[in-house]
Amino acid sequence: MLIKVNRQLCCGCEECVAVCPMGAIALREGRAQIDMQQCVCCGACIRECPMEAIAIAENDNTEDNE
Fold first, then answer.
1. Could you identify which of 7, 12, 28, 39 might form a hypothetical disulfide with 24, taking C-beta atoms 3.0 to 4.6 angstroms apart as the criterion?
2. In the chain, what are the domains?
């Protein structure tokens, strides 16, 4: 399981950065980027995102989190 960011929907508000208990999210080029090495898939960022740009993905076949 992965947490993915749809970079087209992300507005760069940093709400997800502030709420991530693992410090796994940073802004890159004005959009959220999740470090899956640190992410524990708790879902806190999903609930916090006002743009609904963050979601659970079953596999890593998209480029959204690049």
1. 39
2. 2-57 (3.30.70.20)
